[in-house]
Design brief:
A seven-stranded mixed beta barrel has the order 1-8-7-11-10-9-13. Strands 4-3-12 form a three-stranded antiparallel sheet, with no helix packed on it. It has a two-stranded antiparallel ribbon with strand order 5-6. It is globular and about 55 Å long. The longest helix is centred in the middle third of the chain and has 11 residues, at 78-88. It contains four helices and 13 strands. With 202 residues, the chain is an alpha+beta fold. 14% of the residues lie in helices and 34% in strands.
Length: 202
């Protein structure tokens, strides 16, 4: 039996973007297509087979330790982005302002799809492996404030559990605007001890 199950859930790619230097600015630049290799999107600041450990994995590694890069792409759903904007009191929120690589629509509760799920381009076969939910941070505050003065600090709270997911390239290829990505999920039940593990987390 296959370890990954193709589901009836599909997502349409509605926006693509890349950032060459996040130290200079978080904002991403819109693209019409994204040619992806095992390193991610060439020239993008999150590309690479490895990355330095940061605060997200501080319980496992010292900051700066080279680790496998499972954060090559930041994917958010159009539905979650609209909910974030509404919670902030904005009519809409440009995905470029939050450093998104890709915006998709059509999969409910997208930020909570199971880790290790795949998004596979129905036309090209390009496949992305979802690592986990992307935690919101304070970095989008500055670019949001530049476009919407006074609203930047509201992002982190509004984006909690709506920030999308991070992903890495499992099969190389090109994903273009309008592409259909099918969701494939691991064929296993949820771990029954998850809540107990969270309660006893050190």
């Amino acid at each position: 039996m296959p370890a990954l199950i193709p589901t009836a859930f599909t997502a349409k790619v509605t926006w693509l973007g890349a950032n060459a230097d996040r130290d200079a600015a978080l904002e991403t630049q819109a693209l019409t297509e994204m040619s992806l290799t095992f390193h991610g999107f060439g020239g993008e600041s999150h590309a690479g087979l490895t990355r330095p450990a940061d605060s997200r994995v501080r319980a496992q590694y010292k900051r700066g330790t080279p680790i496998r890069n499972t954060r090559q792409l930041s994917i958010v759903s159009a539905e979650d982005l609209a909910a974030i904007a509404a919670a902030m009191g904005l009519a809409a929120l440009d995905p470029a302002l939050v450093g998104a690589s890709m915006v998709v629509s059509g999969i409910p509760a997208f930020s909570h799809v199971p880790p290790s799920s795949r998004l596979q381009d129905e036309a090209s076969g390009t496949t992305l492996t979802i690592d986990m939910e992307n935690r919101p941070c304070h970095l989008p505050a500055a670019p949001i404030d530049a476009r919407h003065p006074g609203f930047g600090n509201a992002f982190k709270r509004a984006a909690l559990h709506r920030r999308g997911v991070t992903a890495w390239v499992e099969r190389e290829g090109t994903i273009a605007l309008g592409a259909t990505l099918r969701l494939h999920i691991p064929d296993q039940p949820a771990w029954p001890h998850l809540e107990a593990a969270r309660a006893t987390a050190r």
